Structure formats: structure tokens, C-alpha cells
Amino acid sequence: MSFQENLKYYREKSGYRTAKDFADVLNIPYTSYVAYENKGREPKYEMLCKIADLLNVSTDDLLGRTSNIIGNKDDMLIRKIIKDIFDDCFAKNDFSFKITLVDIKNDIDIIVFNLVDLENNINYKINLAKDFVIYNINISEKAAKYQKKYDIFYSLLGLSIDTLVEEVNGLLDDENISNKEIKNLLAKKEKYIKYQQAVMKKATKFYNTSFAYYNNNDEM
């Protein structure tokens, strides 16, 4: 996340509801502070330290230099990152399904997602380990600026659908399963595999484009 995004996030997390509230505490003009959050202007070092102290974070956290973008307790940030990225990326892709974050269950360290089959209006629940989701977000956030959003999108998308396939395979291994249940599960598995193929096709195209972009800019 950028300095502007981090600043707004940590301000709101610390209880300063509006930018003006925090500008008053900093004892600087509202217009000066808004320039930090919205106009890409960075404060001088002394002001940066003052902001970090008031928000109880490090300057590296504000500048986005920490190795871990989010920690295990930052549920609000997890929700924001996933919602913003999924909303944007699904809007720009023509998948026949959509995945949304439903809940974060800290008692069992699980993040619950919901996959909607848009063609048939069928919902599937997906449980992913919270630590695994955070790991994928943190790793992807370290990618090049132009691809980090899609790194997160495709990694979580792939994980979610892989989980559904594994669940079906687990049920198919049950010796007591009926022929009717086998037929239904195989139909589900076929649909999930089509989802996987669609994601892989989009991801491959994106990464090939990103690789070409990186090489072209690296040569300049």
C-alpha cells in the first residue's frame, strides 16, 4: 500500500474520524494534511515522525517499507485489501463466478469466502486458513507496483478454487458414497476445474504481459 493509503488507514484505525480531526491534533492547516492523504505529497522527516508517534506506528509502516504488510490482527485491513481488489479485478474480468470475503473467524483462524456461480446462482462456502491468506497478501504486496494487485487477486482466487476441488476429492474417497452422490460431486468437480482453467488462462496472459512490460522498462 502507498504512503497515502497507509496514512488514511492508520488515522482511521487510531480513532481520528476525519482528516480535519487529525490535522488539528498535528497543529497544521487542514489543506496541508489533506495533501499528504490525497495529493501524493510526503511530509518532511520531523512531521513524518510526529505522525507516526501519534498513530502509534513506525515510519516504515507509514511508508510501506515493512516486510509484512498486514499482521494477524489487522482484520479491518484484510477486509479492505481483499474487498477493494476483488471488486476492481472482478469488474475487469468476465468470469462466470465471483468470490467475496464473508467472515473472519479468529477463534479458529479461518477466513470464510463465498463463491457464487453467476450462471446458475449457486453459492459455495470456502474456508481458508487465515495465516495462509495473510502470507499470500504479504508476498504479493512485495511485487512490482503494476502487478501486486493482480498477484493477490490470482493467488487468492486460485487458492479458493483449489480448496473446493480438494473438498470434492475428499468426499469422493468416502467408501460409503452413493452413485447419485458421486455423479453430483463429479459434476461439481468438472465445474471447478473449468473455473481453474479460466483463472489460469487469465493469470498466464496477465503475467506474460507484465513480464514484457518489466523487460521493456528495464532496458530503458
Secondary-structure map with pairings?
Blueprint: H1 3-13, H2 19-26, H3 30-38, H4 45-55, H5 59-63, H6 75-91, E1 97-105, E2 110-117, E3 122-129, H7 130-141, H8 148-172, H9 179-218
Antiparallel strand pairs: 1-2, 2-3
Helix pairs in contact: 2-3, 6-8, 7-8, 8-9
Structural account:
This protein has helices spanning 3-13, 19-26, 30-38, 45-55, 59-63, 75-91, 130-141, 148-172, 179-218; strands at 97-105, 110-117, 122-129. It is mainly alpha-helical. The chain folds into two domains: 3-63, 434 Repressor (Amino-terminal Domain) (Orthogonal Bundle); 75-218, no CATH class. A hairpin with a 4-residue loop joins strand 2 and strand 3. This is HTH-type transcriptional regulator immR. Keywords: DNA-binding. Residues 7-62 form the HTH cro/C1-type domain.
